[in-house]
Amino acid sequence: MTEVLEAEGGDPQVLEKARMSADKQRKEITELERLLGTGAAAASGGENPYAQAVEQMHQRMMAANGANPSETWMRKMVAHHRGGVDMSNVLLELGGDPRILEKARMTAADQAKEADELERMLQGEQVGAAAAAPAAPKATPATAAQASVPQRTEPAAKAKAEAPKAAAKAPAEPAADPHAGHDMNNMSNMSH
Question: Matching Gene3D superfamilies, A to Z (predicted)?
Answer without folding.
Answer: 1.20.1260.10
